[in-house]
Design goal:
Mean pLDDT of chain B: 91
Order of helices and strands of chain B: EEEHEEHEHHHEHEHEEHHHHHEE
Number of domains of chain B: 2
Number of strands of chain B: 12
Low-confidence stretches of chain A: 1-11, 352-396
Radius of gyration of chain B: 21 Å
Largest sheet of chain B: 8 strands, mixed
Helix content of chain B: 25-40%
CATH architecture of the largest domain in chain A: 3-Layer(aba) Sandwich
Largest sheet of chain A: 8 strands, mixed
CATH class of the largest domain in chain A: Alpha Beta
Distance between the termini of chain A: 39 Å
Shape of chain B: globular
Radius of gyration of chain A: 23 Å
CATH superfamily of the largest domain in chain B: P-loop containing nucleotide triphosphate hydrolases
Number of helices of chain B: 12
Strand order of the largest sheet of chain B: 6-7-8-3-9-10-12-11
Oligomer: heterodimer
Structural class of chain A: alpha/beta
CATH topology of the largest domain in chain B: Rossmann fold
CATH superfamily of the largest domain in chain A: P-loop containing nucleotide triphosphate hydrolases
Number of helices of chain A: 14
Low-confidence stretches of chain B: 1-10
Bound molecules: adenosine-5'-triphosphate, iron/sulfur cluster, magnesium ion
Strand content of chain A: 15-25%
CATH topology of the largest domain in chain A: Rossmann fold
CATH architecture of the largest domain in chain B: 3-Layer(aba) Sandwich
Number of strands of chain A: 12
Distance between the termini of chain B: 27 Å
Shape of chain A: globular
Chain lengths: 396, 346
């Protein structure tokens, strides 16, 4: 399922263009800047993965362009579907576009299904909303769609109610509904997060089959780098409401140029690696999106940070000759040919115990001893520990 | 690196489960709540855990992992079976006989947000088990501060409340509390499942370090096989209440011989695009059957790709009629499949 990404892609190939999208929420405590100047393009038929820590703005970015945020949200920038601006459309205009051109799949299938109707009726209804066909034809289409997403015995299952199906089945029904009108773009927000791994594999297969069948482009939001590696052509990494790196899936996994992306890879336990490989966590927590301090948002957790990182937030700039790979870091050139273990320490200490341990062969060995702060005393003191406390409040 | 975490410094067995069975009653709705059936949550489960050893218990939602974990600590009573610890069968002990042993056997739960009392300071949360066991007087405060730094928390933050900490920090508080009584056995029920990967890694490292420093035995319950591969020395795979395969971590991931284990391993997404592009997946069909009426013979047969695609009619008879015993079938480890065959998947 690899799709060749080449420079021949022309403007007409772009189905979705998000430009400098920002979203903030006024709250009692102040303005929460959930998304800050996100730009990306989605080409016909491709899968764009969006990864990032909890609260990094992945969902809000997508909800904004689907017109699904609460009225209190302040949205600026632009999101164009085939050149047509989506932001600022009223509810009626948006609901015409949703389903027909842009379809959304959420983590919990029950939010998208009506408990009192059989699933066949719900799929058929989705077909009928945008197509002038007979009820019978819509019902037959429902059975076909269930087959595409891999539901066994679709002729019988079509009469089931949502509560008669397992979670993985329901999610496949939601995918069938999303496919009903051959949308050009599907946005799946953590579609498999709540599912068991064997069921996840089935649902991802269904999503892939759906995408191929209707030739749709897919935005796949997930925190699981394994899912991204297997299903995305290009990847956007989000941190504190911003894109901090983007590129082809190989760029991000084999040549990351922003410390956060590199750190994520180093944090991952891998099923294809033995027990002796130790992990390099990213210490600390993401910053609060209320009153974000100036400078690089990753600074309190970054072992490479210098003074400039406190003052100037780095722009997302091209880091390769082809112009496909971008990263937001003042020192991204330092990451050429580095491994996570070159930058991050094998540590078991949390940032609250004063400092970020910088990787360095001696330190890596020393931090094996639990929480012996003297051993890592040579390292740089970390920014205000209140940061950590703030974000935990935010998360709860 | 001073410690080789890849090998267990295993000396004899610390705790063992023998033929554990747990049935939960299923009752009818209404006032009478008659008993109309039983959930076969755990069925004939046996295992040993040594000192400084981690046994990973894996399997999908509802397969009986948490029930097994609670049985091991005698937090719930088994329908039948034994738990051997310190020369005693815990299943036979009364509450008061159990009390002195409680100190040795501790548990850490998945949800760091729900498992800590929001009205208590972190100091009090960690001190509580010491107070309960009358061990606080005489240096208790110093002990709590030491525990906090052992789990990588700032010991000056003892007067803060749980909501002031991040998820990873709260899980560390849970671990400090579990360590307060200097246990020998720690049951970890999905201890890192709620955490973002960047934060999860630090807690995994902490658990590895603590095991080596304190010689702890871990039962590590998880649905995440990548985490288990990383932290466990041996692994037991559960399906519908039974252990279907058990092996050293290396054997399990390179020579899985039960069709369920194979499907499980092949379904894990690898964070490696090149490997993912060439990977073959074994996709299971159908849903997990109800544990109220599990299939006869091999419980996996309704979803087993080998049963459906490779076996002949007479061969299938065995799967339908006979429960496959968990024994070594020539792969060097135990597998509960009549037709076990080792396959390398990653
Ligand atoms: N309606 C709202 N009002 C105020 N703040 C909000 C609202 N919706 C989202 N936020 C905040 O916006 C930020 C980004 O949230 P978002 O849901 O996009 O994160 P995410 O990356 O999808 O995280 P997760 O992985 O947990 O789903 C968070 O800090 C969140 O608390
Ligand atoms: N107190 C109880 N009463 C009745 N049934 C129960 C009880 N506790 C667990 N069960 C059932 O026993 C089976 C095993 O549950 P258990 O919680 O041990 O699974 P698990 O493997 O830990 O699942 P998960 O990964 O979802 O935590 C399930 O079918 C569950 O519904
Ligand atoms: S800009 Fe500075 S703080 Fe930010 S990621 Fe780069 S080196 Fe780290
Ligand atoms: S015993 Fe039969 S049904 Fe069970 S796993 Fe083996 S082949 Fe499949
Ligand atoms: Mg989200
Ligand atoms: Mg459980």
């Amino acid at each position: 399922m690899t799709i060749e990404l080449n420079a021949r892609s022309t403007a007409t190939d772009t189905v979705l263009e998000v430009d400098n999208l920002s979203v903030s929420f006024p709250t009692e405590d102040g303005l929460v800047k959930a998304v800050r100047g996100v730009s990306y393009t989605l080409r016909r038929g491709e899968t764009l993965g969006i990864v990032g820590e909890s609260g990094s703005g992945k969902s809000v970015t997508s909800l904004a362009l689907m017109g699904l945020l609460p009225g209190s949200a302040k949205i600026t920038g632009s999101a164009r579907f085939r050149g047509e601006e989506l932001l600022g459309k009223n509810d009626r205009e948006m609901s015409k576009i949703r389903g027909k051109h842009l379809a959304m799949i959420f983590q919990d299938p029950l939010t998208s299904l009506n408990p009192v109707y059989p699933i066949g009726k719900q799929i058929a209804e989705a077909v009928l909303v945008h197509h002038d066909v007979s009820k019978r034809a819509a019902w037959e289409r429902a059975v076909d769609l269930l087959k595409v997403v891999g539901i066994p015995f679709p002729e019988q299952r079509v009469n089931n109610y949502p509560h008669e199906m397992s979670g993985g089945m329901r999610q496949r029904v939601v995918i069938a509904i999303a496919m009903a009108n051959n949308p050009e773009v599907m946005i799946a927000d953590e579609p498999t997060t709540a599912l068991d791994v064997t069921v996840q594999a089935q649902v991802l297969e269904a999503l892939e089959a759906a995408r191929t069948e209707i030739g749709a482009a897919l935005v796949l939001i997930t925190h699981d780098l394994g899912v991204i590696a297997g299903h995305a052509d290009r990847v956007c990494v989000m941190y504190a409401g911003k894109l901090v790196e983007s590129g082809t899936v190989d760029d991000i996994f084999y040549r990351p140029r922003m410390p956060y992306a590199l750190g994520l890879l180093g944090s991952l336990p891998r099923v294809d690696e033995g027990r002796d490989a130790r992990l390099t966590p990213i210490v600390g927590t993401p910053p609060s999106l209320l009153n974000l301090p100036p400078g690089c948002p990753f600074r309190p957790r970054c072992p490479l940070a210098q003074d400039i990182c406190d003052e100037v937030e780095p722009d997302l700039v091209t880091v390769d000759a082809g112009g496909q790979h971008t990263a937001a870091c003042h020192f991204s050139t330092q990451l050429v040919d580095t491994q996570a273990t070159d930058v991050f320490a094998v540590t078991s200490v949390d940032v609250d115990t004063e400092e970020v341990a910088v990787a360095d062969t001696d330190l890596v060995a020393d931090t094996d001893l639990v929480a012996d702060t003297d051993l890592i005393a040579d390292t740089r003191p970390v920014a205000d520990t209140r940061l950590a406390a703030d974000t935990s409040e935010d998360a709860s | 690196m001073t410690i080789d975490t890849s090998k267990p410094a295993a000396t004899g067995t610390v705790i063992s489960a023998r033929n554990l069975v747990k049935h939960f009653p299923v009752r009818s709705r209404g006032i009478l709540r008659r008993r109309i059936g039983e959930v076969h949550a755990v069925c004939d489960v046996s295992f040993d855990i040594g000192a400084t050893e981690t046994l990973g218990l894996v399997g999908e939602s509802g397969c009986g992992k948490s029930t097994t974990a609670r049985l091991l600590l005698n937090l719930i009573r088994p329908t039948s079976g034994e738990i051997h610890y310190a020369g005693k069968d815990l299943a036979q002990l009364s509450r008061s006989q159990m009390r002195p042993l409680r100190r040795d056997l501790q548990i850490v739960f998945q949800d760091p947000f729900a498992s800590l009392d929001p009205r208590m300071t972190v100091f009090e949360i960690i001190a509580e088990p010491l107070r309960i066991h009358g061990l606080f007087s005489g240096g208790g405060a110093a002990k709590v501060r030491e525990l906090m730094s052992t789990v990588g928390l700032n010991s000056e933050h003892g007067n803060r409340y749980p909501h002031e900490f991040s998820g990873g920090q709260r899980q560390r508080i849970g671990i400090a509390r579990a360590l307060a009584l200097r246990p020998k056995v720690l049951v970890l029920d999905e201890p890192v499942s709620a955490l973002d990967v960047s934060i999860q890694a630090g807690v995994i490292n902490l658990l590895e370090d603590l095991q080596h420093e304190l010689g702890l035995s871990y039962l590590f319950v998880s649905h995440d096989l990548s985490v288990v591969r990383h932290i466990a020395h041996r692994v037991a795979v559960m399906y519908l209440g039974r252990i279907v395969e058990t092996a050293t971590v290396e054997d399990l991931f390179t020579k899985a011989s039960h069709p369920y284990t194979q499907a499980l391993i092949s379904a894990i997404p690898l964070p490696d695009p090149r490997k993912e592009r060439v990977r073959q997946r074994i996709l299971l069909t159908g849903d997990v059957p109800s544990p109220v009426s599990p299939p006869s013979g091999c419980r996996f047969r309704t979803r087993c790709p080998k049963f459906a695609e490779q076996l002949s009619g007479p061969e299938r008879e065995l799967c339908i009629n006979e429960v496959p015993a968990l024994t070594d079938r020539g792969q060097g480890h135990r597998s509960a499949c009549h037709y076990a065959e080792a396959v390398k998947l990653v």
